[in-house]
Write a structure and sequence with these properties.
Elements: E1 3-21, E2 24-38, E3 42-47, H1 60-76, H2 83-90, H3 97-115, H4 119-123, E4 129-131, E5 133-136, H5 142-155, E6 159-163, H6 170-180, E7 186-189, H7 199-203, E8 213-214, H8 222-229, E9 236-238, H9 245-253, E10 259-262, H10 264-267, H11 270-283, E11 287-289, H12 296-306, E12 338-340, H13 353-359, E13 360-367
Parallel strand pairs: 5-6, 6-7, 7-8, 8-9, 9-10, 10-11
Antiparallel strand pairs: 1-2, 1-13, 2-3, 4-12
Helix pairs in contact: 1-3, 2-3, 9-11
The structure holds 2-succinylbenzoate and magnesium ion (MG).
């Protein structure tokens, strides 16, 4: 496929409610979309970078700059672009994985539409629907947290992830356990808010039967995670630290984690995400699909990925209305605690132009 035109579009979309993590509170999302047009096909990609570099070093304006200045011009100089060649084409540029992922996803969508194949079938999905979990932000009070969980469980969510931070951890988890009982599937995510010094404190979570604790320590301290893992009964899962299949293998081999959160944006694309899935399967480590407050575009791709066979832990796969009053594609709805995996070619979603235009703050077109 020859790429004729690239479109970079920024959106500002309000969240249905504030989302607080140990690194900050979000009330809206600044989203970058990439649209690629070839001779007979077009495709969409979503960049998951946040507007401020708090979760990782990438941020949306930086991704836009990288895509506009280096990635798209290089892509548009190619006579034939195939999704399998994109990551190698971009390999000379260090890092910038979220920028690369957005472009690769648009190539995948456009090319798979030409091939008449869904992203799920292409990646090797074995499921037609995915069980739903929800990531729940830190609340001001325990009562608010319990009320929110009541609501999510009534809707059918099958697993709860609680964001935690020092001071809002053990007692919150205890309250949730006491209120909802031992059968609730429960895990926590610290977004790197602790250090190895907190090992004894974090071991107090052991009594609550958590599925896992996600990224307790700074992303660069993988050896500290290995030492922590030996002091906890709760399995340690890594998110921010896992930047590639290579890193995933190393982290597993040194014992830094026994479960992996896979987010395509964090690792540079859905093909690298699949490679991480494969490495983890080879090493006997279960994986689950993370999320980054995606619109229907990124959500469709996550559903396709989450259907791979080693996604044996319920992920942050939630319905469109978890974050949005109105989605820019047809909304993903949860039925009996599951969301159906799109089956149409490519991402299998249609962008609603009228909704898109209402949330758009800027559009830039780049021609070959
Ligand atoms: O650490 O998993 C995380 C959202 C933004 C940045 C980091 C994380 C998250 C979430 C939300 O937990 C997951 C979702 O999109 O449902
Ligand atoms: Mg996380």
């Amino acid at each position: 496929m020859k790429i004729r035109e690239g479109e970079l579009r920024r959106l500002r979309m309000p969240l249905v409610g504030p989302f607080r993590t140990s690194f900050g509170t979000q009330t809206e999302r600044d989203i970058l979309l990439v649209k690629l047009t070839g001779e007979d096909s077009e495709g969409w990609g979503e960049c998951v970078a946040m507007d401020v570099p708090l979760y990782s070093s990438e941020f949306v304006a930086g991704c836009e700059h990288v895509i506009r200045t280096w990635l798209l011009p290089l892509l548009m100089r190619q006579d034939d672009v195939q999704p399998e060649a994109v990551s190698e084409l971009f390999a000379p540029f260090a890092g910038n994985r979220m920028a690369k992922e957005a472009v690769e996803l648009a190539v995948l969508d456009a090319e798979l539409k030409r091939r008449g194949q869904s992203l799920a079938a292409y990646l090797g999905s074995v499921c037609d629907r995915i069980p739903c979990g929800v990531s729940v932000g830190i609340t001001d009070t325990t009562e608010q947290l319990l009320a929110q969980l009541e609501g999510y469980l009534a809707q059918g969510y099958q697993r709860i992830k609680l964001k935690i931070e020092p001071g809002l951890d053990v007692e919150r988890v205890r309250a949730v356990r006491e209120h909802f009982g031992p059968d609730l599937r429960l895990q926590v995510d610290a977004n790197a808010a602790y250090t190895l010094e907190d090992a004894d404190h974090l071991a107090r979570l052991d009594e609550f039967g958590l599925i896992l604790i996600e990224q307790p320590i700074h992303e660069e301290e993988v050896w500290a995670h290995a030492k922590l893992a030996r002091r906890l009964r709760t399995p340690v899962c890594l998110d921010e630290s896992i930047l590639s299949a290579r890193v995933a293998r190393e982290c597993i081999e040194i014992g830094a984690c026994s479960i992996v959160n896979i987010k395509a944006g964090r690792v540079g694309g859905y093909l690298e995400a699949k490679r991480i899935h494969d490495v983890c399967a080879e090493l006997g480590v279960p994986v689950w699909c993370g999320g980054m407050l995606e619109t229907g575009i990124g959500r469709a791709a996550n559903l396709a990925l989450a259907g791979l066979p080693n996604f044996t832990i319920i992920g942050d796969v939630s319905a469109s209305n978890r974050f949005w009053r109105e989605d820019i594609t047809e909304p993903f709805e949860m039925v009996d605690g599951h969301i159906a995996v799109p089956t149409e070619p490519g991402l299998g979603v249609t962008v609603r132009q009228e909704v898109l235009d209402r949330y758009t703050t800027s559009v830039e077109r780049i021609r070959a």
